[in-house]
């Protein structure tokens, strides 16, 4: 065992099964997941799923990175929802807006689930207060139906709770928002929930931790498919400090997350 892992373990943290620290390029999570940075045609047709009371940064963090990438590579993004009405960040229940704030925005979808392009390659699922809603069945159905044809499914934050509700995460190594970890694990305990990760990759499912972690998983995905120099260019354009270690996760400690049995 290497000295860093021993040090982390001796500090009593939950690193036992997660002591792997990799600094090389391409990172292990790239291997077998992509045609490589020299590919002439990386996947570029994205779908962003929208449902009421999504977390804003879950959408706009990844979107910012793709928006920057789209100036140097062709990127198509479809904004998908049940209907073409703008989808608001406002929670349905007044109890979820205890101060009666008016702090919300809506995104107008480009397609309904019924008219969504059939050739979407990467589907991004945000989380947020709406992830637990009983009124997002059309979103769950769309994810279930489109999954077999997707090349990648990326979840941000409790977007993994949304996908867990479809059963698609069963047996998969996935992570989620650490403040909501216990609740999310309970939705599908048969998934292999990773308590200490900024993001995780299992085949075509890429899941990330809370809110801002969507930026890092998107940059990691860009690094795998367009090369790390392009991911670095996008990162610098955003004036962002990117986390390249998928196991970086101080929030596991802050939210007292420990490994669920079977992880
Ligand atoms: C909430 O605020 C709006 C204005 O933003 C106001 O019209 C409405 O009456 C308020 N509702 C309650 C329950 O205070
Ligand atoms: C959503 O689907 C679940 C499971 O099939 C069902 O129990 C629930 O009533 C549905 N919700 C709505 C609002 O139709
Ligand atoms: C985490 O555990 C510590 C020590 O027991 C406690 O002080 C802290 O309030 C806990 N944090 C949360 C978010 O539960």
Automatic annotation (TrEMBL):
Alphabetical list of Gene3D superfamilies matching this protein: 3.40.50.880
Segment forming the signal sequence: 1-16
Keywords: Signal
Record flagged with keyword Signal: yes
Superkingdom in the source lineage: Eukaryota
Domain called DJ-1/PfpI: residue spans: 95-221
PANTHER family: ARAC-FAMILY TRANSCRIPTIONAL REGULATOR, THIJ_PFPI FAMILY PROTEIN (AFU_ORTHOLOGUE AFUA_5G14240)
Name assigned to this protein: DJ-1/PfpI domain-containing protein
């Amino acid at each position: 065992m290497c000295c860093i892992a021993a040090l982390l373990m001796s500090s009593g943290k939950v690193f036992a099964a997660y002591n792997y620290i990799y600094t090389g390029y391409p990172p292990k999570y790239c291997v077998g997941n992509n045609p490589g940075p020299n590919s002439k045609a990386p996947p570029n047709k994205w779908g962003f799923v929208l449902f009421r009371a999504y977390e804003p940064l879950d959408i706009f963090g990844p979107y910012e990175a793709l928006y920057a990438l789209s100036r140097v590579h062709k990127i198509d993004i479809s904004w998908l929802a049940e209907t073409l009405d703008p989808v608001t960040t406002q929670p349905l229940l007044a109890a979820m807006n205890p101060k009666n704030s008016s702090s919300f925005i809506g995104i107008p979808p480009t397609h309904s689930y019924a008219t969504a392009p059939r050739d979407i390659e990467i589907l991004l699922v945000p989380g947020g207060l709406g992830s637990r809603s009983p009124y997002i069945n059309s979103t769950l159905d769309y994810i279930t139906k489109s999954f077999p044809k997707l090349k990648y499914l990326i979840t941000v934050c409790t977007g993994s709770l949304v996908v867990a509700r479809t059963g698609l995460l069963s047996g998969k190594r996935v992570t989620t928002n650490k403040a909501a970890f216990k609740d999310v694990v309970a939705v599908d305990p048969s998934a292999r929930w990773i308590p200490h990760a900024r993001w995780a990759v299992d085949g075509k499912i890429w899941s990330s931790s809370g809110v801002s972690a969507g930026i890092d998983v998107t940059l990691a995905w860009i690094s795998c498919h367009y090369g790390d120099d392009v991911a670095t260019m996008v990162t610098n354009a955003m004036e962002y400090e990117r986390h390249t270690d998928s196991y970086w996760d101080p929030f596991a400690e802050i939210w007292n997350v420990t490994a669920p049995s079977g992880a």
